[in-house]
Every structure is written in structure tokens, then in C-alpha cells.
Amino acid sequence: MHRFVDEEKAHYPIRMLCRVVDVSPSGYYAWRQRTASLRQRTDEELMAQIQEIWHASRETYGAPRIHAELCRKGIACSRKRVVRLMRAAGIAGVHRRRSVGTTK
Predict the structure, then answer these.
(1) First CA to last CA across the chain, in angstroms?
(2) Which of 7, 14, 36, 97 could lock onto 40 through a cystine, CB 3.0 to 4.6 A?
(3) 100 belongs to a structural domain
């Protein structure tokens, strides 16, 4: 909600936007001054590592291989977290095609 108000504040008054999305203006201003949480900061650092590994693999590695690379580097995280961050960044591994079996 607050992010929407922040994106649209150039087009509409902040008080009107806050009324529309049902948040208080003081809550919006408090949200703007708040620093990123520890999880957000670690997610950003981890995302940089994930993108580095993904680019080094010529954009072919998926979440399992990226997770394995992170474990080899000593970075502790779960595979589900890697999947979530990759999905948020819009990156994915390349799927191999199955060979087509024919019968004659």
C-alpha cells in the first residue's frame, strides 16, 4: 500500500492517495523513513551472489545448481529462498529438451 502511494505521489496528493488505499499519512511517512530490515539487506546481498553465479553459468543454472554453488562458497541459505529470490528477479535456468523417441 505504501509503495503504491510512493509511486503515485507525483500525480496525486499524498493525503488523497492515503485515503484511497486506507492508510494514515503518518504511517506512510514513517514507512518512508524506515531503513531496510536485516532480511531485506541479506536478500539483496544474496541476490547479488545469485545473479553473479547465474551470469557465470551463461544464464543456464537453475535454483538447485545455484544453491549448490552457494553452499560450496560457504553461504548458508535454503533452496526455497534461492527459488523465491530468482522468481522475484525474473531469472530462471534453461530446461533441457527431452529426446523424442520414435517407433518404427
Answers:
(1) 61
(2) 36
(3) no
pLDDT tens, residue order, the chain (104 aa): 888 888 888 999 999 999 999 999 999 999 899 998 999 999 999 999 999 999 999 999 999 999 999 999 999 999 999 999 999 999 999 988 887 777 77
In which residue are the cell numbers 492517495 written?
Answer: 17
Whole-angstrom distance, CA of residue 3 vs CA of residue 48: 23
What domain range is 19 assigned to?
A: 2-33
| pTM for this entry | 0.71
Report whether 79 contacts 64 (CB < 8 A): yes
Using CA atoms of 99, 100, 101, 103 in order, give the dihedral in degrees to the nearest 10.
-160
> Quick one: 44 and 75 in the same domain?
yes
In this structure, what C-alpha cell is assigned to residue 55?
Answer: 551470469
